[in-house]
């Protein structure tokens, strides 16, 4: 029994020695690979990488430029909300699959109000991009609106979902909500 335990330890020691030998060889190989590059070449590679990294950020501008762009975009958004009466209250986007030339599919959810009409849109967007241009197509559209007071909208909503035309939806909803408010105010005046 004593010999068998001794043999097990000897085998374990031999396996560990072989593993140490393999690791020492790998370490030596890595050391030799690192000596292939001189300090000058390593410094040049670092500088090149830093230039590329800075080039990526130059397109975005400095923080003050970004702040002014953000303020400008917020002003534009405020103007559009006043003009159309559409106010977005929630937006979420989930990219399902990315590829080098296009984003295969993104699921987006938009919620908001147009005048006093609440709405929620859920759609899938297929974004394609090549060297010259970018395009996007709505592949699936679901519109949720309260149909209690506005039963006349159900046919319009169904047609819009079928044609997957977001621009038509927002234009028509804006126009309908504006005239709905005019009718509501007129009826209140005569009451």
UniProtKB/TrEMBL annotation:
Q: Which residues form a coiled coil?
A: 6-33
Q: Name one GO biological process term.
A: CENP-A containing chromatin assembly
Task: Identify the stretch annotated as signal peptide in this record.
Answer: none
One Pfam family here: CENP-P
Q: What InterPro entries is this protein classified in?
A: CENP-P (IPR027801)
Q: What UniProt keywords are attached to this protein's entry? A: Coiled coil
Question: Could you state one GO cellular component term attached to this entry?
Answer: chromosome, centromeric region
Record's keyword annotation contains Coiled coil: yes
Q: What is this protein called?
A: CENPP protein
